[in-house]
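Re: that backbone. Tokens:
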């Protein structure tokens, strides 16, 4: 096919570039001036391409309508029937072009499968084949014709009427805004660099703008994870219906050498119309002022200039440090050890070469923390070694930029629970879009037994970032743990329907099934999650624990390869090996994610001396152990009693009782608890005191589906209940648990065949 000439104004290059890509993807040979070699004669090359073209697409916009060159090219094409008009921005076409049909692409967002592109391709093929058409397609273009005529008529309206209409629109806007704050989604920007290797830069620029806007009053900003899941070519109205977003900010960056172009446009999801577009050109070093300018412009567009209030400027530094910072942030978001190690190396280099760059200091603190060994981290650095480094660099970031969230976030994640609340809340006040900080604050409240406050943090996290797995994970677990499993399942199904990770959805369903006394579906859901995403974290541990509970340790062999040494030793019933490992690791053992199984294993053997030795080497984070580790505190109380340290035992007993009483009075339960765990803990404390009502609470625990999760289903393995064995009810409960376990074990075996 002969080529198609594309005429446009340089100001529209970003949008036209998408059109070129879509048409070339449809098999058309498109010529536009970006194809001209640097050494070629510019005007002669354009004239020849226009003369040789079988069809000419003219892209109308306010800028191109005012261009003599574009109007001339359009007249040449009109005279011999080669003209195809498209409107890339709302405008009235030049005189004598309004009666011709055109395709309205002013709300098109780059989807090559859009029906308007299909219509355009068909028309190009018709003209290129020699069939001159005066109308592209009357039925399909009727909307465009009406648009053009109405645009022409608008030009005839008097200035007074325009002012009146503007005033009315402003009043209506102010009235609407009084009822509903605008909610903005900042989509990841596209990388339009020639080498297409700066995606991290484009996405990072968008994220910086998002963080700045999130701190503004009267504007709700969809958090990063959910915004990144929105497909660029998805219908804005569908986005509005699914996520409640009223506006989209999308854009692109194009870097070439030291040159920078940033194009942004604001879209109303009510009808997909464009409210504002701007392109910024300059040097890479201008990126900080460009980001601030964009954030200010968007804030004014959404709130109205009468609201006032300036955005907080980002700290500036050398562009190489900033690019490194963005690259490291992109690596951290992968949530895997190898990329995080790369991010840590980049952050260390930034700190060494640009020590006054606050985000770099905070990044180094965060990356170091994420590479420690622990339940919510990804590395092997001993926490005792990492903590001083994390705290020093986080505090330096705060010193350098006290009004930015960067330094407060790692401080929130690193400090002991009681001390971390203040920096967590400070970070969120400065940047509400930091969903990982909100999740961390929820975990802190859970650790402190303040479950209702934790639930509110997870709820807010899901509200601002509905497609982020982490807050939704703990939010739905708290619902299920609190007797609201049906509601949890509805939230999970909505997450999946909105486009959330299917692997994560099955992970969440697995969490919910365990509160429904259904280890069969719990195990099946975990396996399904791993089939979809073999790298999904924590699923191997859950499967090892659940299969061990059902007495199916042989079925857990394939999963034991991916869990910690403590889990492996516990699941293989190597009590001696586990005890030796704990003794060898000493204080470091407390920071492994299988510490509870280790303590249970020692307590099951009634080795009180070994347990007290382990208790005595606990790190500072576990000094107030009844608050930070209530699950295994009853074992430690008994160990201290047997070793003659009754004063310490009594203190732990009173502290633990206060925690359990407080949590039983709250609406929501800790997502880290097993089903019925609070009732089991109350039974344990009563049994340690010798109170026979312990059996009543143990019965309540079993009624809430407690089966000894996830340590042992045999009550005889739980030393705190030794004094209850003579009561017939104890034996009946033991047999009831055995019966449930046997039935579910048989179901798992049957499904395996």
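Recovered sequence:
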């Amino acid at each position: 096919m002969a080529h198609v000439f594309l005429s446009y104004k340089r100001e529209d290059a970003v949008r036209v570039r998408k059109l070129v890509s879509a048409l070339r993807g449809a098999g058309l040979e498109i010529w536009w001036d970006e194809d001209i070699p640097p050494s070629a004669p510019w005007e002669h090359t354009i004239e020849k391409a226009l003369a040789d073209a079988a069809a000419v697409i003219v892209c109308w916009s306010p800028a191109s309508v005012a261009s003599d060159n574009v109007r001339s090219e359009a007249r040449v094409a009109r005279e011999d029937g080669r003209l195809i008009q498209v409107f890339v921005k709302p405008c009235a076409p030049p005189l004598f072009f309004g009666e011709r049909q055109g395709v309205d692409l002013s709300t098109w967002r780059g989807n090559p499968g859009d029906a308007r592109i299909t219509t355009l391709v068909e028309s190009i093929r018709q003209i290129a084949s020699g069939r001159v058409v005066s109308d592209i397609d009357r039925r399909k273009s009727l909307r465009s014709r009406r648009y053009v005529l109405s645009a022409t008529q608008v030009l005839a309206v008097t200035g007074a009427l325009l002012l009146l209409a503007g005033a009315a629109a402003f009043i209506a806007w102010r009235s609407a805004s009084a009822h509903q704050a605008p909610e903005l989604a900042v989509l990841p920007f596209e990388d339009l660099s020639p080498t297409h290797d700066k995606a991290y830069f484009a996405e990072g620029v968008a994220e910086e703008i998002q963080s700045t806007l999130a701190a503004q009053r009267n504007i709700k900003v969809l958090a990063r994870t959910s915004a990144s899941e929105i497909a660029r070519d998805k219908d804005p109205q569908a986005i509005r219906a699914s996520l409640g977003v009223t506006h989209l900010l999308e854009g692109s960056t194009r870097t070439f050498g030291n040159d920078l172009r940033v194009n942004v446009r604001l879209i109303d999801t009510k009808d997909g119309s464009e409210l504002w577009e701007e392109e910024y050109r300059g040097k890479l070093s201008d990126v900080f002022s460009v980001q601030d300018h964009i954030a200010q412009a968007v804030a004014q567009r959404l709130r109205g200039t009468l609201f006032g209030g300036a955005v907080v400027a980002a700290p500036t530094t050398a562009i190489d440090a900033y690019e490194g910072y963005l690259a490291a942030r992109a690596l951290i978001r992968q949530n895997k050890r190898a990329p995080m190690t790369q991010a840590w190396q980049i952050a260390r280099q930034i700190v060494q070469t640009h020590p006054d760059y606050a985000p770099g200091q905070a990044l180094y603190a965060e990356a170091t923390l994420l590479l420690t060994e622990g339940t919510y981290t990804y590395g092997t650095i001993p926490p005792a070694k990492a903590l001083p480094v994390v705290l020093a660099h986080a505090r330096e970031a705060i010193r350098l930029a006290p009004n930015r969230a960067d330094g407060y976030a790692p401080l929130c994640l690193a400090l002991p629970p009681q001390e971390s609340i203040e920096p967590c809340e400070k970070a969120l006040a400065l940047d509400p879009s930091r969903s990982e900080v909100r999740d961390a604050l929820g975990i802190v409240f859970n650790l402190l037994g303040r479950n209702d406050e934790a639930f509110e943090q997870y709820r807010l996290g899901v509200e601002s970032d509905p497609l982020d797995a982490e807050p939704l994970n703990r939010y739905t677990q708290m619902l299920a743990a609190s007797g609201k499993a049906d509601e949890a399942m509805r939230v999970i199904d909505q997450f999946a329907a909105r486009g959330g990770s299917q692997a994560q959805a099955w992970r969440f369903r697995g969490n919910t099934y365990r509160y429904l006394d259904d280890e069969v579906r719990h195990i099946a859901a975990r396996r399904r999650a791993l089939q979809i995403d073999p790298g999904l974290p924590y699923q191997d541990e859950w499967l090892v624990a659940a299969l061990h509970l059902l007495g199916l340790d042989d079925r857990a062999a394939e999963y034991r390869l991916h869990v910690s040494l403590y889990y492996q030793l516990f699941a293989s019933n190597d009590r001696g090996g586990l005890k030796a490992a704990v003794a060898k690791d000493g204080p470091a053992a407390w920071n492994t994610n299988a510490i509870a199984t280790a303590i249970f294993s020692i307590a099951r053997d009634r080795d009180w001396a070994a347990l007290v030795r382990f208790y005595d080497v606990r790190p500072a984070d576990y000094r107030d152990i009844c608050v930070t580790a209530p699950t295994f505190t009853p074992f430690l109380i008994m160990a201290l009693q047997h070793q003659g340290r009754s004063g310490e035992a009594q203190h732990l007993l009173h502290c633990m009782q206060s925690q359990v009483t407080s949590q039983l009075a709250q609406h929501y339960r800790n997502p880290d608890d097993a089903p019925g765990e609070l009732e089991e803990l109350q039974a344990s404390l009563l049994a340690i005191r010798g109170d026979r009502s312990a059996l009543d609470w143990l019965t309540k625990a079993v009624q809430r589906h407690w089966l000894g999760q996830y340590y042992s289903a045999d009550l005889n393995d739980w030393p705190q209940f030794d004094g209850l064995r003579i009561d017939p009810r104890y034996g009946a409960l033991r047999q009831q648990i055995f019966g449930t376990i046997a039935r579910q074990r048989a179901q798992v075996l049957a499904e395996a065949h």
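The two ends are 59 Å apart (CA to CA). The domain at 178-314 is CATH 3.40.50.10070 (Rossmann fold).
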